[in-house]
Specification:
heterodimer; A: 2 helices; B: about 180 residues; mainly alpha; about 0% strand
């Protein structure tokens, strides 16, 4: 009797491990339109409305936890902020001239005061789900293909770029954030102009890396990084030019390296997303290729 | 554990509730700089109460649900969580749960194992970006949060499954067991 139980237990374990490995390898190797992806989208479609309802119902509880978290952080930050006030007073005069420069830059980047991008329509969406691990930096939003969203549409907040749409169902869409390890965004530093590729550092959502900046190009702390929006023949970046990404915090030049390693702090806090805007191109029926995060 | 259709429905609802709560609440809050993950804790509790087979099946189901809901690579979470559920069940089958701290400690340890396993699978599948040392902090903090979360979750799961637990079956109305001599 006991042996039979042991055999059954082992059989169940082996079966489940084999099924998991088959699912993993099949899902990993098949295309976006494969049967497993379709099954997955079916589940996501069913779960979408439930997630949306739960998201609304649990908002007060989330806000309560966030309040405790912010209060806890604020106490620790108080002393540091006092020191910063002294420093900021000195910078106030410089800030006034920077404001004028900012207005000029906005015109240069064709950004409106609200951060709107010409030629795109913004669809506002609520974040209804989020991956629990640092290895998948993705969120689920409550708008999908029925609202005109398509794969590779840029996703922004009032602060700047947060990611792009990587999968859609009728009522929901998956957004891969710029902090996901599969993300790569072509970006440029303004106003000096060197361009590179923004990649994340897994596990640290407050630090992005701007790679492939040649050593001769000068990059200073505090400069703004925006999407490069390149076009080369029939190929073009999925992100239009000029969406703010972040601010340069550090630029290091290795002795034997050709490229600088520029650290960028993103403007948008991807850990605290409630609403986002998806930039859709009206009348564009072409489905962009998803590639390996190539943007 | 006596598994009846009613208990299966209860377990299914419990798993669905766990996944929804994880997606809409726990993944969206920040505690000690990371988001708590209740799914390994839930699976460990089910394994401790129902044994290795139930733990493994529930781990697989929860993993499948969370991967589907987030449109992630199917099978990764299932593989990791079924291992956690199976190990919790094997512990229950081999040892007595003599201290109230055993469940939280096991939940913390298996949450660490699950998070490490998930990281290992991701590294095998290929990570296209540098990895911060903060990932290690994330693993440790998630284990600590797993320990703390198990303290309220285990009694809740136990209460939901009480009707199926042999040792928790209400004694009232049961026929007295006759005394036997050797």
């Amino acid at each position: 009797m006991y042996r039979k139980q042991v055999r059954r237990r082992r059989a169940v374990l082996v079966l489940l491990v084999i099924v998991s490995l088959v699912l993993l390898s099949t899902h990993f190797s098949e295309g976006e339109g494969g049967p497993l992806h379709s099954v997955e989208r079916g589940f996501a479609t069913v779960l979408g409305p439930i997630e949306e309802g739960a998201d609304r119902a649990l908002k007060p509880a989330r806000d309560l936890v966030a309040w405790f978290d912010e209060t806890f952080d604020a106490r620790g930050e108080n002393e540091a902020l006092n020191a910063e006030v002294q420093d900021l007073r000195g910078r106030l005069a410089a800030a006034e001239s920077a404001t004028k420069e900012n207005e000029q830059l906005r015109k240069l980047l064709k950004l409106g005061p609200g951060g709107g991008i010409a030629g795109y329509e913004a669809v506002t969406a609520r974040v209804i789900g989020r991956s629990p691990t640092v290895w998948y930096s993705t969120v689920t939003i409550d708008r999908g293909s029925s609202s005109g969203l398509r794969v590779d549409d840029p996703v922004i907040t009032g602060d700047g770029l947060v990611g792009r749409v990587t999968d859609t169902t009728a009522g929901t869409a998956q957004v891969t954030l710029i902090t996901d390890h599969r993300s790569a965004v072509s970006a440029t530093v303004v106003p000096s102009g060197p361009s590179g590729v923004i990649t994340p550092e897994v596990g640290d959502p407050q630090d992005l890396l701007l790679d492939f900046i040649e050593n001769e190009r000068e990059v200073d702390e505090g400069q703004t990084v925006v999407t490069a929006g390149w076009t080369s023949g029939r190929l073009s970046s999925v992100f239009p030019y000029g969406i703010p990404i972040g601010e340069v915090t550090e630029a290091t030049i290795g002795e034997q390296e050709t490229y600088q390693r520029v650290h960028v702090r993103p403007f948008a806090d991807v850990r605290e997303l409630d609403f986002v805007q998806v930039l859709t191109q009206p009348g564009d029926n072409a489905q962009a290729s998803t590639g390996a995060g190539g943007t | 554990m006596i598994v009846t259709p009613r208990i299966v429905v209860r377990i299914a609802l419990l798993l669905l509730l766990g996944v929804i709560l994880q997606l809409s609440f726990f993944s969206r809050i920040s505690v000690l700089g990371t988001s708590p993950n209740i799914l390994p804790v839930l699976v460990v509790c089910l394994g401790l109460l129902g044994g290795a087979v139930l733990g493994a099946v529930c781990g697989f189901a929860v993993g499948f649900l969370i991967d589907s809901a987030l449109l992630q690579t199917l099978g990764v979470s299932s593989l990791v969580l079924l291992t956690a559920g199976y190990l919790a069940g094997r512990y229950r089958e081999g040892f007595d749960i003599s201290s109230p701290l055993i469940c939280p400690a096991l939940a913390g340890a298996l949450t660490l194992l699950a998070a490490s396993g998930f990281a290992a699978v991701q590294l095998m599948l290929g990570v296209e970006a540098p990895i911060s040392l903060l990932v290690l902090r994330e693993l440790v903090v998630q284990a600590i949060l797993g320990f703390l979360l198990a303290i309220p979750i285990y009694p809740i799961v136990r209460r939901v499954l009480r009707a199926a637990l042999v040792e928790d079956t209400p004694r009232r109305g049961r026929l007295p067991i006759p005394f036997r001599t050797a």
